[in-house]
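Worked Example 4.2. Consider the chain below.
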Amino acid sequence: MTWPVGNVGGVRVEVHASALGAVVVATSVLALGLLPITAQGQPAVLHWSAGLAVALAFFATVVVHELAHAAAARRYGIMTHRIVLWLLGASGQSRPPPPHPRADAVIAVAGPAASVTMGSTCWAVAMAVEPLLAPAAIAALLWLGLANLAFAVFTLLPGAPLDGGRLVRAAVWRWTGDRDHAESVARRSGRVLGSALVACGAATVILFGQFVGLWLAVAGWVLLGTKAAVPGETGEAGEADETGETGETGTVTP
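Applying the procedure from the previous section yields the following structure tokens:
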């Protein structure tokens, strides 16, 4: 189930029901665990307010990440039609597929570059206005910045359908001249990465009792599983994202 929330430059933005769960979980983790440590001595209501603000702002930055992909894709005549926010980030649909490996690589890098820029900006602003804002607000900016930087790093991991998988595909495509073979290599890489994330996530939960392990395991399941796991993805060339086939999937890590 998805709900339309707006249209940005001709790109329809929708929210899947699972995204609401992600907001609740992220808010709770921040308000109960992270903000009380980094903004000590503040009222609980400030922790909850700041946690909710960070969770909502992070999903807004995920939309910007996707729009950066869309802007880069437009340079090559590829139009993005839809972005769906869901439990682990977002997926996008565009057509036609990239015309050559360079376009594939440029489109792939645009999203993480936007996330790094936003994360760095949050940290710079937090340091610049630290004397003027409450500790909870400064902590919220820092956590939002860290979330964007972590998101950029994660999406660059070398496995489809992450941005790093696109870079793998672009490299193999350029090397072999065979896009279908490159796509196959990127998907196999994604399955290997997914298996590793599921194993690491399970170990993190079992051995250390850390909630982040569940996030890693679910992210790994998405990489391992079918496209049906990702709302908005069709997996068909007729309705695809910037890759022309699978949709770009960001994976949120708290």
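The chain is about 65% helix and 10% strand. The two ends are 24 Å apart (CA to CA). Compare this with Example 4.1 before moving on.
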